[in-house]
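User: I'll paste a sequence; please echo it back and then give the predicted structure.

Assistant: Echoing your sequence first, then the prediction.
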Amino acid sequence: MHYDAMVVGDKDLVYGKGFIQDHRELPWVSSNMTFENPLPKVQLKRYNNGLKIAILAVSDPKLFYIAEHTDIKVEDPRKTIKNILPGLLQSEKPDVVILLAHMHRDDALKLMDIAGIDVFINGHIETENDTVDMTPVLRGDKILVQPGAKGQKLGELRINIDAQARKTYINRMIKLDSSFKDDGEMVRLYNDYEEEVEALFMASLATKRNNGQNKKVYATDTACMACHAENHGKWLASQHAKAYSTLLRVNKAFDPECLVCHTTGFNKPGGFISEIDTPELKNVQCEVCHGPGLKHTEAPEPGFGRQAKEACQQCHVKSHSPRFNYRDYWPRIKH
């Protein structure tokens, strides 16, 4: 993807230190992490017009739990920068110094008092549903910028340097929406990924069929309709009743990450297995919110399934439903 430098993040080591070593072709930079095979501490980029940029990269030791159990050493970011930066400024005389940081935003902001760094680019989230503050911070002639999550936005920072070497910045976030043409190489990689996911899904069916997961515990929406015809009618007119067709339309009816929120009881005892095995459990039916109801249909009692509100939050998370608000959405399906 033509990157010039990449900082090491904690998620890069989820599969162990070998991930970094096995992908040495990537432009890793780590000023404060020590590996068995060291990574570059600084990346220099020179342009034809004579402009020279120096890039440092630091990661927060508190995020790297693996370092406690391996030979990886993560030094204090501030101390590392102060050890490297003076010599770098004197020997290379870069026009712009950029610091890539992988840490909480508040910790990155504290580093802005270090003299000699012009641009701070920070990134770290705990989960994909975290709210990311992408507001740029200007302090004198320095700027801190932060990208969003999941690669849905591209950060662009333009740096203008005048005759007196003073710097000004223009920052914007570009939404990578459908107006951008798909990259051929990325499409091929994504298609390969889809094929692997589908193969794993098909391979899992035999196990699910044989381990008793198809033991019936759900009554299905048809049974609910017998006593709750009016409520069933409202459900039938909602998007919940069409949830599975959405997956078919985008060829995702084999993806476990999608099936869990577009079917009834996927990966739960007695729940959806596949369209062939359990077609009666397609879509987001009554029992997704109210709980398995087979026993209730056999011996109905008042009060069943009243704790339905909590179910909304399992699927309507920020990454999938960024505008979801229970107060506004509930009237659409109120029953």
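The mean pLDDT is 89. The first strand starts at residue 6 and ends at 7.
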